[in-house]
Specification:
There is one protein chain. The chain contains 14 helices and 22 strands. With about 625 residues, the chain is α+β, with helices and mostly antiparallel strands. It has four domains: about 130 residues, Chitinase A, domain 3, CATH 3.10.50; about 110 residues, Chitinase A, domain 3; about 120 residues, Chitinase A, domain 3 (Roll); about 150 residues, Alpha Horseshoe (Serine Threonine Protein Phosphatase 5, Tetratricopeptide repeat), CATH 1.25.40. The strands form four sheets. Strands 9, 10, 11, 12, 13, 14 and 15 form a seven-stranded antiparallel beta sheet that branches. Strands 16, 17, 18, 19, 20, 21 and 22 form a seven-stranded antiparallel beta sheet that branches. β16 and β17 form a beta hairpin. This is peptidylprolyl isomerase.
């Protein structure tokens, strides 16, 4: 192909050059090879056309002799070796330079003699392979290599202590992990081919991940397998640990496990602390997790609830107590216990799961059935029949979108009043994400869109304030103020967040600016400033008390730091009477929530003070 430049001369277009791979350490070592330093003679031809490549595992026997035929060392038992062939991964394992260059030239089954000068074996300067004891590294030697086999392998551990060769691919991509329950046919041989664990005849071996019920290397390898897969897992001694499956056989340096993964049961520690456990009883349809109702959806389930007492008392069963009809609910709206919903979101359609749930994720924070005692751990047997995800706004008119927004915002407001602040925040944030794809067509739509988006940002700020995340609350307010610096409600909400975080000057600036913009907010602003003044005075009083006498002592004297006198509660009661957050025309009164643990020291006490006096109270718009 040619192009014409401005002078009508043809120039050849050069094809784009491929980026060169960075030079590896092995490539640098190969540059040391000089003619005559490595010679090869084929003793027995191999079969096939393919040769080992980088990333392949090569298994070979090696016998080293002097030029006059004296055996120096060998892997073969007839020459004094253990009879166990060597395994290396090209490009991963450390090899002497002669084998690094020579093995990739061989065919499977081939036997070749490599004549190496010292610099091609252990006499190489800075050789990365340790020299065996009493090895004649300065001599020219013969290396007889029999390439038994080579194949692609998966490297499980960085030290090459566990490798896997796939014999037959599995049926899906999901793999077991702790604390899944696994069934597999397993047999084992030592590196020299001796059987040390025959394959069981009656049933596959059953074990639980993470319980050390099989050797560590076998568990690591099985954790990369999918259902139906057959593989050989090569395990070196450091990963060949004691287990109920088999004892450790002395003198065995490595074990080759032949594994067929028959089945595994998905068991999920949902909270990560062993309290909320979901165990799959029957597989569902589709692939996990792509086909699970991870997003907010309308779900239909049958379930049976049991108490974890000796009698396993059934307290509810949709098939009997609901006229045989399944429970239908929308996720993300707090309509079922938190633990119930968390587990259903991880189910596939048609799946049946057994869920064991602690009381704080069951009915202690949810409307409790009359026959469930307070503080009870429960078990649910859940069948997810099907689910429908919420429709997106594709094809919706602006009016239809805003009507849907009002419904979602209404759900968020209900959740806020029920003190489910995380769920409420998720509803508001979902709409804000979708708003990135909404484009009003005229000024009237633009104004409505902007006002609604601002209210949603302020509702998110209110949720963060309730959750004690003051910095995030301030950031949410800033999203409104960046577009409209005189937004009164945003200034008020940000001022409350600044006050709660102890940034009194920032809070005062927001309250004063608010009053200068909107004279009708004067009463609310004065009340906010009065509360701010009380907070400053109280902080000063506490600081003075804590460090009482610290600055009154003469040099060399030590003053004791004061202690808390328990006055927080009384102050909190007094300030709780101040109803300041009334810009929206109403106050959503809810119980206070506990803020996250503050930092230690004086800041810790200040944060504790702010929480106790109710500074994280706010309204929903």
């Amino acid at each position: 192909m040619a192009v014409v430049d401005d002078d009508d001369h043809e120039q050849q277009v050069k094809p784009p050059q491929e980026k060169k791979k960075p030079e590896s350490e092995d490539d640098k070592r190969r540059k040391k090879i000089v003619p005559g330093s490595l010679m090869k003679a084929v003793v027995r031809p191999g079969g096939g056309d393919s040769r080992p490549a980088e990333g392949d595992q090569v298994i070979y026997h090696c016998t080293v002799r002097t030029l006059d035929g004296v055996t120096v060392e060998s892997t073969r038992s007839e020459f004094g070796g253990k009879g166990t062939p060597i395994r290396h991964v090209l490009g991963k394992s450390k090899l002497i330079l002669g084998l690094l260059e020579g093995i990739p030239t061989m065919l499977k089954g081939e036997v070749s003699m490599f004549k190496m000068k010292p610099e091609m074996h252990y006499g190489e300067e800075d050789c990365p392979v340790a020299v065996p004891n009493n090895f004649p590294k300065d001599s020219e030697l013969h290396f007889e290599i029999e390439l038994i086999e080579f194949s692609k392998v998966k490297v499980i551990t960085a030290d090459l202590g566990v490798l896997k060769k796939v014999i037959e691919e599995g049926q899906s991509w999901e793999t077991p992990r702790e604390p899944y329950e696994v069934k597999a046919w397993i047999s084992a041989k030592s590196g020299d081919g001796k059987v040390i664990l025959p394959r069981t005849q009656d049933e596959p071996y059953f074990f639980t991940f993470g319980k050390s019920e099989v050797p560590k290397g076998l568990e690591l390898g099985t954790g990369t397998m999918s259902r139906g897969e057959k593989a050989v897992i090569y395990v070196k001694s450091q990963y060949y640990t004691e287990s109920p499956l088999m004892p450790v056989v002395e003198g065995v340096d490595e074990v080759h496990f032949e594994v067929e993964l028959v089945h595994f049961v998905q068991v999920r520690d949902v909270l990560g602390d062993g309290r909320l456990i979901k165990r799959r009883i029957r597989d569902g349809r589709g692939e996990f997790p792509m086909d699970c109702p991870l997003q907010d959806s309308l779900l239909r389930v049958h379930y049976k609830g049991l108490l974890l007492n000796e009698e396993k008392t059934v307290f509810y069963d949709t098939r009997f107590d609901n006229n045989g009809q399944p429970l239908e609910f929308s996720s993300g709206e707090g309509l079922v216990p938190q633990g119930f919903e968390m587990c259903v979101r991880l189910m596939l359609p048609g799946e049946i799961a057994l869920v064991t749930c602690p009381p704080d994720y069951a009915y202690d924070k949810f409307e409790r059935p009359a026959n469930v005692p307070e503080g009870a751990c429960v078990q649910w047997e859940i069948e997810l029949l099907d689910f429908n995800t919420a429709k997106d706004w594709t094809g919706f008119s602006f009016r239809e979108i805003m009507e849907d927004v009002e419904k979602i915002k209404g759900t968020g407001n209900r959740l806020f009043k029920e003190e489910k602040f995380e769920l409420a925040k998720a509803k508001y944030e979902k709409v804000l994400r979708e708003f990135n794809h909404v484009h009003p067509q005229d000024d009237e739509e633009g104004k409505e869109f902007s006002n609604t988006r601002n209210l949603l940002h302020l509702n998110v700020a209110a949720c963060f304030l309730k959750l004690g995340e003051y910095k995030k609350s301030i950031e949410a307010c800033n999203k409104v103020l960046d577009a409209n610096p005189v937004h009164v409600k945003a200034l008020y909400r940000r001022g409350m967040a600044y006050m709660a975080s102890g940034d009194f000057e920032e809070a005062r600036a927001d309250f004063n600016k608010m009053m200068s913009i909107d004279k009708s907010s004067k009463a609310s602003t004065k009340a906010a400033l009065l509360k701010l003044k009380k907070e400053e005075q109280e902080v000063e009083r506490r600081v003075r008390k804590q460090f009482k006498g610290l600055f009154d002592k003469r040099p060399g004297e030590i003053a004791e730091v004061g202690t808390n006198d328990g006055g927080d509660d009384a102050i909190g009661e007094n300030l709780e009477k101040d109803d300041l957050d009334n810009l929206d025309g109403h106050e959503e009164r809810t119980h206070q929530t506990t803020a996250p643990p503050p930092r230690s020291g004086i800041l810790s006490q200040l944060r504790k003070l702010f929480t106790s006096v109710g500074l994280n109270r706010c309204t929903i718009l």
